[in-house]
Structures are given as C-alpha cells and as structure tokens.
Amino acid sequence: MLSVEQVAQVVSEVTGRIIERVSAPTLGLQAGRARSLAETINETLWWEQDRLSKADPTDEETIADKQFYADIRRQLPRVSEAEQRRLLERIVHRYANEIAGRFSPTFYNLAARVGPPMLSALLTGLSPRRLLERETIPRLEQHVIIEGEIANLGRLRERGTLVVTPTHSSNLDSLVIGFAVHALGLPPLTYGAGLNLFRNPIVGKFMHNLGAYTVDRRKRDPLYKQTLKAYASVSLEFGQDNLFFPGGTRSRSGAIERTLKKGLLGCSVSAYRNNLIRGRAKPDIYVVPCTISYPLVLEASTLIEDWLAEAGKSRYIIVDDEFSRWERWLDFLRGIFSLDLKIHIRFGHALDPFGNEVDGDGASRDPRGRPIDPRGYLEVDGELVEDPIRDAEYTRSLEQRILREFSTENVVHPTHVLAFACFELLRRGRPELDLYRLLGSVGPEQSLAMPEVEREIVALLDELDQRTRADQIRLSTVVGEAAARAEVAELVRAALRSFGTYHAKAVVERRGVRLHVCDAKLLFYYRNHLDGYGLRGAPTLVSSIGSGGARHG
Amino acid sequence: MADDTTSDETTPRVSVLGAGNWGTTIAHLIGSNGFPVTLWARNRELAAEIDERHQNSRYLPGLSLSDNIRATADLAAAVRDVPLLFLVVPSQAFRSVCEQLGELVRPSQLAVHATKGIELVTYKRMTQIVLEETCLRQIGVLSGPNIAREMVEGKPAGTVLASRFPRVIEVARAHLKSPQLRVYSNTDVVGVELGGTLKNIIAIAAGMATQMDLGENAKSLLITRGLSEIARLGVALGADPMTFSGLAGIGDLMVTCASPISRNHRVGAALARGLSLAEAIESLGMVAEGVKACKIAYELTTQLKIRSPLMHGVYRVVHEGLDPRAGLGELMAAAVQDDIDPTLVRAAAKGA
Amino acid sequence: MAKRDDDDTEYELIRSPFPMVRKLQRTLAPTYDGPAYIWDIDKTWLDTRISQVKGMLKIPFEFAVDKRALPGTTALLHALREGPSGREHRPLFFITASPPFIRKAIERKMLIDGIEFDGITYKDQLEVFRRREFGSLREHTAFKLGALLLLARAFPEQTRIYMFGDDAERDALIYSMFADICAGRLRGDRLIDTQVRLGVLRHYAQDVATLAADLPARERVHAIHINLVREPDGRRILAYDPRVVGYPSAGAAARLLCERGLISARGRDRVEGAGEVVFGRAAADPEGWWTPRDKLACSR
Q1: A94–chain B nearest CA distance, Å
Q2: Domain containing residue C64
Q3: Which of A28, A341, C235, C250 has the fewest CB neighbours in a 10 Å radius?
C-alpha cells in the first residue's frame, strides 16, 4: 500500500500529467483548432456550476466548492497564459486530492483482523440462546468461498502489479473482495468507490481507510474523468495493486456483464507502456478477472426496479437503496449465516494487458500456451511507440477475454436454477407477451405445479452439467450434487429457503404442491444470472443490452 | 533494434506466404513497387522456379515476375523478423499454416490475409483463426474485386484493406499502392471478410443464369437480391451494413458475377448444363470456394433464422441435386419482400 | 365454520368441534388411494418444551433457526414426502397443539428445513382461554380428534393414513381412537363418554361425536408411529396392538418404513439414529379395535 508521501507523489504526478496533456498543442486539438487553456477552464466551470446548482446549498462541501470556483472565475479574465496554467493546475490538483484516498495501514490491518470475527459475533449476538449455549460461532470464511486460479496470485503480486477485475452486483462486492484478498494473504487493493459509499452511514467511515479512492459520479466534467483515470493509471505505475469493477456499475438486471467500460480497463496497457518507457524494475501488470456470485443479492429489489424503469443511466447513482439501511444488512447477513449460504468468489486466469494468459511466473502465453514477450505489441522496429488507437484495440481484446472468464467462472446457485426454470415455464406459457407484460401478468394467484417445475429443473441441470464439464460455467455444491444425481428435491428446498427468508416478500413460495411466484421482478432478476447462455433454448433477454437500462430495439 | 541497424535496402521487410495465383500476384505487385519481398511456397520446386526463373508456370503461366521477389520453401526464413506478413493460403489449409506460424511469429509483427473463405465446421473467419493460433494481434484483411490475371497485366483496380489497427493499413498500403492500384481502408474486418466469401455463392447462381440464358435483367435481380442476403447474414454476424455497398461487397460481387472465367461462375454454368457437382468440379480442375461457402451459409442462416432464399436455392442445387430450373421457379414464385430489408435500414441507422 | 382470519387469508378460523386455526394448501384427487402422513410437531419433529409454561412463553421470541429438530426427523420427513421413487410429493399434514401465534416461527422453521407440508392445524389456545375453559388448555384430546376428523373428511375415501406422534402425551391413545372412529367402531355415546373420561368437556366431546357421525365407516388408518421420548424401551405403547409402533430414533423408524416400502433406501440412509422399533404387544382384537378396551368407556 502507498505511504502518505507516495500518495502525495501520485497526486502531483497526476496533476502534472493532466496539465501536460491539456496544454500539449497536438492533443488539445479539437475540430481543427487548438483549444486554449481558458476554454478548458471555462468548460470545468460550466460543468461544476451545473452540478453545484443542483446540490444541497447548505452542504459544507458545496459551499467550499462554490467559493473555490468563484475565485477561479474572478481571476480567469485578468490573468496571463502562464497564470491560466496555474489556475488549471489548482483545479486538477484539487480534483486529484479529492480522489486520493487516505489509507491507513494500521487501520486496515486492524479492520481485516477484527472485522470478520466481529461480524460473526454480531450475528451470533442476534440470537442470545446460541451464544449462551456456546455453539460453534458462524465464521465468515465458511460463507465466503474463494476458489479458482488463486495459487499463483502471491507470486504474480511479487513480480508485478495486480489489477483485480470482478463482476459487480452489490455494494458488498468491495468488502467481500477485501476480505478475500486478506484471506489470500495479499496486500490490500486500492479502488475507486462511489462517493455515495463514503456517505453511507454504515461503511462510509471505513472506506477511506480501507484503501478506497473517491469517485464522484455527479461530476461530469471531462477534466475530472481524465484526472480519475490518470489517478488509477499512476497508482498502478507506483506499483499499487488495484481493484477495478470493469462493468462500471452494479449489474441492474442480475446478469453477469457482457460488455465492459474500456476507459478504466485501458489503464492497464497504458501503465504497462509507461512502466516500460520509464524502465521500471517490475513493469508487468497482471489483470485478474473474478466473479462474485451471491445466492441472494442485498440490493436485488432496487436494482431490478431500476433496470425495468429503463433508468439505468439517469439514476446512475442510487443513494437510497438497501445498502444504506441497517435492517436490510442485518437481514442479509443473518440470511447468509443462518441459511448456511455460500458466496462464491472465483478467480479466473491472470491476463496481461493484451488479454493473453500469464503463467505462474508472470510470463505471457500465446493462445497455444507458448511463452511470448508482450513488449512487442507496443514496439515498432524495436522502439516503444505510443498509439492510443492501437492500445484501445488491445483493451478491447482484454475486455473480450475478461468477459469470457466472467462467463466461464460464473457460479450457479439453487436460487438461479429455480428462478430460471419458473421463468421459462411462465414465458413458454405466454409466448404472445413481451417481457414487461409477462412480468405484469404474473401474480401470486398463479402457480406452477411442482412436478412440472422439477422436470424443467432436471432438464436444465442436464444442460448445466454438460456445460460445466466443458468448463463453460460453474456450479455451487448444492447445484453440482443435484446435477450429478439428477435429484432436485434438495436444490428446490435450498432455493425456496433463500427466496422465502430474505426479501420483503417471498420470490417464490410453495403452497402444497404448487409454487407461487410472489415477486415476478425478483424472479426475473435471479433468472438473469443464467441469461445469455442459451440454456433450454431460452432467448437472451438482457445480456445484449448491457448493464444499465433496457433498450428496446 | 539490433535487427534494424543491420537491415538495408535489400533485406525484405515483407513476406507473402502462399504462392498460388493470388499470393504470387500480391508479391509481384509489391515487388513491382520496388520493395524486396519474400514469397513462401510450400512446394520446393515451385519456390525454386520462382526464385531462379521468375516464373510461376503453374498458376500464372507466361508471366515474368518482379526481380524483387525472393522465393523460399523455408517458412521460418520467410517469417522470422519480417515486420509485415501477407497470408494468402487456401481457406481450408489456413489453420495448418497458422499452426506453424504460431511457432515463428512475435507480437510486434503485422499480418494481412487475402484469403476469401470461412473454415468448414467451425465457421471461423481467417482473422479469427490467426488470433486462435498465434500471438499476432495487429492483423487485417485484403479483399476486393481483384482478378489476379488482370492485376498482373497492369490493369487499374481498387482493393480494400480492413483492420482495427491503423498502422496495419498504413504499412500494408505503403507496399501495395501504385498508380495501378487504389487501396481503400476500412475498420470493419468482419464485413470485408464476409463480403469476399459470400459473394462466391451468388457467383454460382450467376453462372447458372448465364448458362440458362436468362438475360441481363435477371442477372441484375440476382446480384441485388444476393447482396441483400449477404448483408443480412453479415449484419447478424457483426458486420457493418455499409461495408457491403463498398468494393469488398457490391464491388467484388459484380466482378465475380460478370466474369465468366471465375471458378464459381464456371461451376454454376456446369451445373446448369446438367452436370453433377463431382463432374462440375472435375471439369474445372479445382474446387470453387462458393461450393463450401453455400454449405456454410445455408447452415448459418438456418441456425440464425435469417431469410435467404437465393443462397438456400444455390445450396440445394449444389449439394442436394435440385434441378436449377426448378430452383429458379421456386425463387420467382416466392413471396415478395421489401426492396430494402428493414433489418438493414435499422442496422445502418444504428451505425450512423 | 370457515371464517377467514383477518390478518392472513390463508388461515381458516375454525370454532367447531374445537377452536382451531388451519391452513390447507392441497386438495387430493378424488381417486387418490396412496398414503397420507399426519404428524404431530412437538417432540415428534421439534425438540420443544411446549408442555411447560416457561417453554411456551419462550418460543415466540426465539429465532426460527434456534428451534432444533429431533435428530433425523427432518430427513425422515423428506424421505416420506419424496416416497420410494424419490420424486413424489406425498401428502403431509401437521396437527399441533401449539397456539397459532407462533405459526410464523414454526412455518419459518419448516421453510428453512425444507419441510413441505400440505396443511397445518393449530390449537386456538387464545379462544380457549377467552372461553375461560382453562382445563382445556393442556388437554388436547378433543382438539386433536376434531382436527383429525376434519382432515379425514377432506381426504378421498381410499386414502391410507399413517400417523406420527410421541409418548410424551396421549398421542397413541388419541390416534387409536381416531382409527376406531374412522372404522365406525367408536362413535356416539361411547365416543362421548370415553372423551369425558379423559377430561374433555362434554360439549366438545359431543361436537366431536357429531362430526364423527357423518364420516362413512372405513378402515383408514394403516399405522401409528410413536416417538419414544419418555420411555425409550417402549413400555408406554406395549398395551396397544402391533399396528402401533414405538421408535426410539428417527433412524429406527426409517428402517421400518423402508421395509414397508414407504421410503427409498437412499431416503432411509440419510436418516440418523440407532435402536430398534418396538411393536405393541396386545393380542389382536377380534373386532379390530386399536384402542385398548380398558381406555374405553363401558361398552354398549
């Protein structure tokens, strides 16, 4: 982890880079003419004023921001070009400082050591009888299963810098990954966390100290975005292991990502290139995709509502969701522990910034496993050459490779299987309805006969089993056993247990020998975890649309 | 860097892999532009003939090849440390050559293929095969209305270079362009590859139409409806619909359908004369790409549920022994759709 | 009779022959002739201390997960539900003297343990309390007979009933009486008097007899299984005939049920518990009575 001095160095390096880029005559070219520094500053002023006009006027930060920009605005018309540069520097430096985290190694170690047992104790505390009877206290590590390509992570970490890129379905993700990284004995990762998390009453206070840097999604100033990207890039170059959520935002639909945001992802190739150019001792960047699969998702209701409202973009920042409410946390964690649920974190193959697999020693391998020197991808006649279009293309390959890992390392839980089977039966029963009408037509008064659902599950498990053997998807223990024996009773029980206990109303409820779908939207949400695999001949309903909002084509 | 300092004017910085008529032609065009070029032939005698006598009597008899061509049967020698490679091997041999290439190439090298076709069974495009078998990433495709014979005779022509990497286009174009050849660029690799492959199917139909003496109106009908089918399938496979209005689409389709000497055209004509596929191929002496392409297109369009009566008709004539006249009757009797397919209009609007 | 409970429409509020609250979620096909299982909850499935006032007060405040099932019984319930093929959903009903206000905890526990029931009847203790019939709070005979008769009326005639209870209370006796009521042997005054002898208020006993009178006479009960929680040697069931079986553990019961073709070998193997079942030792009654003669009111 970076020391306080190093963070200061990163901030000044970021500032320097942005200023250099903005004032460079060739790159500042837009529509055939050079943009002046004043124009760039004015643009920032415009965006920031736009943002501040919508902000709470009594908020301390808002007042401070307003004062700062008023000052810039006052000076701007009267100063020389050199002075303009200094003003811009002030803006960027301020952005960079705001982004930089205030990490405290002492605090991190304390939290990592005390956190999980404290959480366990808290949960045990909920049930006084258990505590009195001195039963085995549930432990977080029994509920977070870390698997996949983990053997070499420590070695790779020593040889280069890691960029861990998980799927993103919950705000718990960064905490779960934090736990996993600590459990694997790796040093902490730095990551960009939305400002809303910092303001979260539950975890906000911890965020800064746990290695997060701030991402304020309300700031739409391109200069801010550049600064943000430069921050990630420079911290990588300083050897700081990073955590990127390459999907950009939590999956609203419940499906795993089928497209990624290339901006942040592109930092890996640019950091590698800069490391080579600067002749750094350990220039390698290793991208480590992983999936986080929850049997139940804390914020499922809000997320799917958002997706269905086609507001994925406009409501980019959800502030008031389950994540900021204590009782939902307790329900969720209690669910995880009392129902003996397992959160699976599966690490995929480590990759170089070009999307090639790397071996245990960090050497890149071509598609047929032959060692190659990836430096060549950046060279022309043996010289390292900067070429943004070329690098964007490499990042696209990296994206495709990460998506493949996401798809193959995705873990299927009983909830996903039951939801998929029920949804398929409902959909096939009403082929004339489009998605929205179908969801609207499903109420608790309708029901599916259990034998029919079970037959559908048996057929689905058969396909899942084949795909698992072909390494195309992964199954949780319960699903795996059900598939191996073609016995579905235990799987259905597990799914009904999960569906009946956490969400405000049961997603699916058994009454006698019939299953009633009480929350069609959540059924759709959990079903979507298996979307895009073409299972049971089902159409792809959300995966081609991306993570935010439904687009009708 | 070490290589760079030792290189001089006579060390070839470009190689063409494959010495069939099109590979030899590309090498000749590059050589004629004054660049030293290595041409790799699998066959040792052919390599010797080209290297020593500047002749390729098997594929381009009677033509005197550029002095700048050095031919070899040693693949490693043709590939190692050469910045730019042209891959011009038949589609069904493409993977096996790439497997060998995988052992030789390095990430810094650029590669452009000029093979029209799709791999049977896997339905893979040639660039996909390169990506699967080698570490090469900076790759592209060369395609267009390019009859080899006319090109070596120095007649004017245009061609398309498609790559997602500007430098691939820039370097390859520098070697190819001449007062005789205009080289256009495109970033739609998928569209350019598919255009060059699928047009062969329509060419078979054109051959039949010519043989049956259906007239020029019918041929135009064939070409435009054919193009529409090509574009529909192409878009479903990820291509940009506009690509098919360019040289690699309509351009290539027109020349293939117009020229009675093209292999696909001749297969179509032979079938219309009542020959079986085996007899048609025998009379030709070589396999036409369209024969394989129509099978692949038939399977793909069926799988993707894309309406393509023309390509299906050709498939049934070629592979199921349907009488070409009966096939024509079916086509003319089929329901009439919009002139411009709505799916293409949408796809074009999305791209804009 | 079938008034609707206000807070939850799934529950029927039943006042006659005894105050109870019931949820029925399955109607069997009229031609059904397979088994139906009727289970008690306390000490038969769950290890609760319901008969003690202290325990009764404690239960509502416990978390569902804290309730412990008796070892092996959850697996036994799964095995019975799945049947010998492992893929069935054989009818399963619960009758419990627990008050309805703990239904959330009980049904949540069932959800967590994956117990698929088709119906559950609670004793409406609050109503009994309101009627100031304090003696009936702890005495379950009329409630259980009433609940059983209502179920039997809802079942197709050919349904084969298998019953599960425990030896902590009078389950063996009540179930045997029910078997004899179904068969038409125990009805009318004798049924009323026998109940009254057991401490049932006369008006409840009469209502039960009235309900029984309507039921077509038929042998419906095929076996009675009693969990031996009080006397593991089975001495509390020895006075019954061999159709009444005592089991010291769920495992022992599972072995018998598998032998009798009611559960699969796989289902049996998942049920833990040692020991052997004990069969009643009374000589077979020539008239087919289940209920020992000495428990009955004087004969006609």
Answers
A1: 37
A2: 3-295
A3: C235
pLDDT at A112 over 70: no
Domain boundaries, chain B: 2-187, 191-351
Contact indicator for A450, C89 with CB cutoff of 8 Å: yes
Is A218 a residue whose pLDDT tops 90?
Answer: no
The answer, for A395 touching chain B at a CB cutoff of 8 Å, is no
Residue A544 is predicted with a pLDDT of 59
Chain A and chain B share a number of CB contacts under 8 A equal to 61
What is the set of active-site residues of B? Answer: 199
Which chain A residue has the Cα nearest residue C68? A130
Q: How many angstroms separate the Cα of A21 from the Cα of each of A176, A340, C43?
A: 37, 53, 77
**CATH for B191-351?**
1.10.1040.10
Q: What is the largest CA-CA distance in chain A?
A: 81
Contact C66 A511 (CB under 8 A): no
Cα-Cα-Cα-Cα torsion C122, C128, C130, C133, nearest 10 degrees, comes to -170
Residues of C in contact with A340 (CB under 8 A): none
**What are φ and ψ of residue A146, in 5° steps?**
-105, 120
Closest chain A C-alpha to B252 CA, distance in angstroms: 28
For the segment C21-70, what is each residue's pLDDT rounded down to a tens digit?
999 999 999 999 999 999 999 999 998 654 444 444 454 444 444 568 89
Does A107 score more than 70 pLDDT? Answer: no
Interatomic CA distance for residues A527 and A297, integer angstroms = 12
| pLDDT confidence tier of residue A128, bands split at 50, 70 and 90 | very low
Rg (CA), chain C: 18
Q: Is B43 annotated as a binding residue?
A: no
pLDDT (0 to 100) of residue A108: 62
Please report the pLDDT score of residue A550 as a whole number.
Answer: 34
Bridge pairing between strands C20-24 and C119-123: antiparallel
Determine whether the annotation assigns residue B199 to a binding site.
yes
Residue A547 pLDDT more than 60?
A: no
CA dist B347 and B343 (Å) reads 6
| Residue A131: closest C-alpha in chain C | C66
Rounded percentage of chain B residues whose pLDDT exceeds 90: 66
- Nearest in space to B177 (alpha carbons), one of B35, B51, B346: B35
- Split into its structural domains, chain C has a count of 1
Which amino acid is it at A51? R
CATH no. for B2-187: 3.40.50.720
Q: How far apart are CA A526 and CA A417, in angstroms?
A: 9
User: Above 50 in pLDDT, residue A328?
Assistant: yes
Task: List CB contacts of A70: < 8 A, sequence separation 6 or more.
Answer: none
Length of chain C: 300
Is the per-residue pLDDT at B189 higher than 50? yes
**pLDDT value at A130 more than 60:** no
- The shortest CB-CB distance from C78 to any of A489, A510, A512 is to A489
How do residues A139-163 score in pLDDT, each as one tens digit?
Answer: 677 788 999 999 999 999 999 999 9
Q: What would you measure as the largest C-alpha separation in chain C, in angstroms?
A: 51
pLDDT at C29: 95
pLDDT digits (tens, 9 = 90+) for B283-319: 877 777 889 999 999 999 998 889 899 999 999 999 9
- Residue ranges and CATH numbers for the domains of chain A are 4-97 (no CATH), 105-290+341-409 (3.40.1130), 411-545 (no CATH)
pLDDT at residue C54, rounded to an integer = 47
Domain membership flag for residue C300: no
- What is the rounded distance in angstroms from the CA atom of residue A505 to the CA atom of residue A332? 14
**Going by C-beta distance under 8 Å and a sequence separation of 6 or more, which residues neighbour residue A353?**
A268, A269, A271, A272, A285, A287, A374, A394, A395, A398
| Residue C129 one-letter amino acid | F
What are the chain C neighbours of A129 within 8 Å (beta carbons)? 62-63, 66
B144 in a known ligand binding site: yes
